[in-house]
Design brief:
Layout: H1 17-27, H2 38-45, H3 49-61, E1 65-68, E2 73-76, H4 79-90, H5 92-108, E3 111-118, E4 121-128, E5 144-146, H6 151-157, H7 162-176, H8 180-197, E6 200-205, E7 208-217, E8 220-229, H9 234-259
Antiparallel strand pairs: 1-2, 3-4, 3-8, 4-5, 6-7, 7-8
Helix pairs in contact: 1-3, 2-3, 5-9, 6-8, 7-8
Length: 262
């Protein structure tokens, strides 16, 4: 995983490269890979072994990583969890959105989620699951999903500058390989759909249809989505649920404008 250029909102202020690289090491830890050695971290971040060795020692000293000498590996330390808790507790957007998302999920028996971008992925901040059908996929807060394949990511891509999109497309092309042309066409179609209809739809997993719309706030761009596990074709689900998504988005925008202000 390589760090992308900063997003549009950060301008041209200089950054601390060591800090950025240390954060990339923390990002390398994902569910299913709790212990990572220096070689694993170098492969996932693209950083040199010497840089990894120096930064992992610093992160251990700072209490962000734990080191197991026998495994010769590291894992995230418990204090990292406190950052997520502090973020959730202090987020005005989540405080405003969560009860309204839950009300829609319960009334329509659908899944409702809220996500934000992180480099080339989307991270769920809230995920309320009330699907009509039992699904194998269980989405939780903090879970990452691909930006280029999901309605969440494609809705977000409709909000970024051409330069930012170009940088992200380079990452997507490496990841998609021979399928990139098809995925790229789908992304452009989704961006047009957001511009024309206010949302986009995608079905990147079998029998799962999702729709998403961007929410621009003073805290940054978030993306709201609804999804269902269904055998119905995508157009039918769009006709049935797009109105509910757009109504919730409008309600959230109005509430956030009152609570956060310009």
């Amino acid at each position: 995983m390589k760090t992308l250029p900063p997003g549009d909102k950060f301008g041209t202020s200089p950054t601390n490269r060591s800090l950025v690289r240390g954060i990339e090491i923390l990002r390398a830890f994902r569910p299913g890979s709790s212990w990572l050695g220096n070689g694993d971290l170098a492969e996932r971040t693209g950083l040199s072994p010497s840089t990894i060795s120096r930064l992992t020692q610093t992160l251990v000293t700072a209490g962000m990583l734990q080191h197991d000498p026998q495994r010769r590996a590291y894992r995230l330390a418990p204090p990292v969890l406190s950052f997520a808790h502090a973020m959730r507790a202090g987020s005005t957007v989540l405080a405003v959105a969560a009860p309204r998302m839950r009300a829609l999920a319960e009334s329509r028996r659908i899944n409702v989620g809220l996500a934000a971008p992180d480099n080339d992925e989307m991270v769920y901040l809230e995920s309320i699951r009330y699907n009509r059908r039992v699904a194998l996929r269980n989405v939780v807060s903090g879970q990452r999903v691909p930006m280029e394949l999901t309605s969440l990511g494609r809705a977000y891509l409709s909000t970024v500058s051409a330069d930012r999109r170009k940088a992200l497309f380079k990452v997507f092309q490496q990841r998609c390989g021979d399928h990139w042309r098809e995925v790229q066409a789908e992304i452009h179609a989704a961006i047009r759909q957001v511009q024309e209809q206010g949302f986009c739809a995608a079905s990147w997993q079998a029998e799962v249809v999702a729709m998403a719309t961007p929410l621009a706030t003073v805290e940054g761009v978030y993306v709201l989505n609804i999804s269902v596990s269904t055998e119905e074709p995508l157009p039918c689900v769009v006709r049935e649920l797009s109105g509910a998504l757009k109504a919730l988005a409008a309600e959230l925008q109005a509430a956030l404008a009152r609570d956060i202000g310009p």
